Amino acid sequence: MKELPEKNFIGNNKSYIVSIKKIDALEGNMIEIAGEKLPVGKSYKSKVTELFGLYE
Fold it and tell me: Does pTM top 0.85 for this prediction?
């Protein structure tokens, strides 16, 4: 994660790093990319929701 540009990528849990441009939706604790739903970990939730202009 440290080697990727922060403005283009985001971690959504300990197992995944995703391209921000590829995120299609956020629903609860899941993000959707190309029809696949991936979990958003508790420690990543605030950063992911801020990306969508949402605040907890």
Answer: no
